[in-house]
Give the backbone structure.
Amino acid sequence: MKRLVPLLAGMVFGLGLAISGMTSPARVKAFLDVTGAWDPTLAFVMGGALTVAAPLFYWARRRGTTLEGHALPSGPAGPVDRRLIGGAALFGIGWGVAGLCPGPGLANLAIQPLHALAFVVPLIIGLLLSRRD
Amino acid sequence: MVAPAIVPALVGGALIGLASGGLWLARGQIAGISGIVRIALRGPDRGWRWAFLAGLVLAGGVARLWAGPDLARGLGETSLPRLAIAGLLVGLGTGWANGCTSGHGICGLARLSPRSLVAVPVFMAAAAITVWILKAGQ
């Protein structure tokens, strides 16, 4: 179960990205193009995801333990600081430039490998540069 | 009237929510892609993270067999240097913010994390402004 559940979760997550349209930079850019020919469809991806995820997170909180019986880790607390806001802004700029965020970038390794790699390799470098630990 | 295009968006979104909520409920693990990638390369407890990432890429392959390369529409027309610059910005930004569309946008919002309630509108606005500026410059 240690690896099987995460493997299945990754597969379901990836299928969700593909079915929803999130793997297409053209679709994502049309969603982000709020001042132009805005296509709001992808807002329903987040809507659908939160509709399912929120009750599951709530259920876990009520139980206080995972289904496997372990204590739930405390969330990554921490302040709302400049690092959070600046990082989110930088991420948003990159998302707008390519029409890709990390999940679709990785799923696209199996769909359009060369272009996905051009995004994913610098993504990894950026992630590793972002902290010293 | 419900536009038919929202059905796959809702279904795909529900699957993403099922994977994220399910992983947290079953194992107490956060399905935040940027964090999973970072810690899979340099951090503790790497095994489940590699399993998750393998599943994610595998799903992309299965989806491609089923639906074809149109799944990535727009990707092939984006130049490689542009993708590289975007990737670096996304990597640095999600590293500093400690989360991306999945970690903050799904897991964080689903549990009403104050940090995510700030991060999501910030990256949404930054992305929309970027698309607007790039279009104006064409």
